[in-house]
Amino acid sequence: MEKRVTLFKNFLSVEECDTLLNTYKNETFVDSEFLNKKLKNYLEKIKFNGSSVSVNEIKIYNISTENTNASFLEEPKYDITLLISLNSDFEGGRFIFLNKDIDKNMHMDNSPGDMIVFFSNINYGSGKIINGTKYYLKIGTNNVLDSQITKSLI
Hints:
The protein is mainly beta. It is built from 2 helices and 11 strands.
């Protein structure tokens, strides 16, 4: 069985995370040249039957003690979702992925710059934030069919 949720450590450096956070903290959409270049380099490795994977949108999100959303979210309009953590000065808030096949949740700790890649039909959420605010990027990609993704991808 192929892995459907994978963690890539240090996709971005802490300095790159700080730059993105300081630049886009109060925005909804992120348009960063260096991030777009890194994503393009990563996504170029993911080609299926001549079809390229492309970024649909990049958004920045924050979750705090006031707005923790522990419910599971679905992004059916994307093929693959990428989540990149931007900070670590918060408590709680681990990403949670629902594995419907075994009716069990998978919790994933990650550090600033770590990227989680998963099929967008997997429900996910964030655990309760105990202290501080968690910032992360959500990148939605298109042009991939579930049946085309192999074990070597994610």
